[in-house]
């Protein structure tokens, strides 16, 4: 969850550098993956949307491809170095990856700073998030996928993926519903607010999608709302969607390197599950 009353001390400004990320990956026994990520082609881009211009980073393997596309929605701290690194790792596995600044309506990515445990910083970030209406997110999703499909390296014959962290979890559901003909796989990692009692609840969008799902739930989020996973499982079953809904042995934020609660073993397990999902569904 990312609401005001839970786990705020667990989220910081994670400005992990490329060198630190590579060293961490190598220390974990993934030297070949780290080397591949170092060779990824990366460039800062501007994506035109109906609401303005979104700054973003585009990444893909060296060469002409083509490769399937993936959109990454960051967490509440937005596009920053650690999400660029995660994008590099994903691109090195054979994808064209776009990581946007979700708060472009309010600030450029390099202006999104602060410690989430600071009340003033939280207020600013929640203000940025409030500027992202559901309609706006849907328009953004279409623009981001159109941008990815305009790249010569993108394999438009294969389905695209979308993955999100924290607030990015529900945004990924919205993306899958906004462009159901393109999104073949959805990954949500410690996603907040996937099931609510509101008509805008992300889980109600599942029937509108054509994707397979990986829902990785934080153990403390599950302790807070143990019924959510059951609601999700029932919704996937009713919509006849392929889905894995699992509670991981990590607290909210465990998948992002540099987090106070980063859990390397569980983060790698989640990454392996995502890799398996994309191999099976992005066809």
Features:
disordered N terminus, eight-stranded mixed β-sheet, globular, Rossmann fold, 37% helix, 283 residues
Structural features, described:
The chain is of the alpha/beta class. The chain has a single domain (8-281), classed as 3-Layer(aba) Sandwich (Rossmann fold), CATH 3.40.50.1820. It contains 9 helices and 8 strands. The chain has helices at residues 18-27, 31-38, 81-92, 119-130, 134-149, 168-178, 219-224, 228-239, 264-281, and strands at residues 41-49, 52-60, 69-73, 96-100, 160-165, 183-189, 212-218, 243-248. An 8-stranded mixed β-sheet has the order 1-2-4-3-5-6-7-8, with helices on both faces. The chain is globular and about 45 Å long. Residues 1-16 have low confidence and may be disordered.
Summarize the entry for a quick read.
The chain is built from 9 helices and 8 strands. With 283 residues, the chain is an alpha/beta fold. Helix 1 runs antiparallel to helix 2 (31-38), helix 2 (31-38) crosses helix 3 (81-92) and helix 5 packs across helix 6 (168-178).
């Amino acid at each position: 969850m990312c609401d005001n009353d839970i786990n705020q001390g667990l989220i910081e400004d994670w400005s992990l550098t490329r060198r630190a990320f590579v060293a961490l990956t190598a220390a974990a026994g993934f030297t070949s993956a780290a080397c591949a990520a170092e060779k990824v082609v990366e460039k800062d881009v501007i994506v035109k949307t109906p609401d303005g211009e979104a700054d973003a980073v585009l990444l893909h393997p060296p060469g002409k491809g083509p490769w399937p596309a993936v959109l990454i929605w960051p967490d509440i701290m937005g596009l920053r170095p650690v999400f660029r690194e995660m994008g590099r790792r994903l691109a090195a596995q054979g994808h064209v990856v776009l990581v946007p600044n979700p708060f472009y309506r309010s600030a450029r990515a390099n202006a999104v700073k602060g410690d989430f445990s600071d009340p003033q910083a939280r207020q600013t970030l929640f203000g940025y998030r409030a500027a992202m209406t559901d309609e706006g997110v849907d328009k953004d999703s279409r623009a981001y996928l159109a941008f990815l499909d305009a790249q010569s390296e993108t394999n438009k014959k294969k389905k695209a993926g979308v993955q999100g962290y924290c607030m990015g979890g529900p945004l990924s559901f919205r993306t899958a519903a906004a462009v159901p003909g393109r999104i073949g796989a959805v990954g949500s990692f410690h996603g907040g607010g996937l099931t609510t009692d509101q008509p805008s609840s992300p889980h109600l969008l599942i029937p509108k999608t054509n994707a397979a799902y990986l829902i990785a739930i934080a153990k403390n989020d599950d302790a807070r709302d143990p019924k959510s996973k059951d609601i999700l499982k029932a919704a996937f079953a009713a919509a006849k969607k392929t889905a894995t809904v699992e509670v991981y042995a990590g607290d909210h934020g465990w998948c992002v390197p540099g987090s106070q609660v980063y859990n390397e073993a569980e983060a790698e397990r989640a990454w392996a599950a995502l890799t398996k999902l994309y191999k099976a569904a992005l066809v």
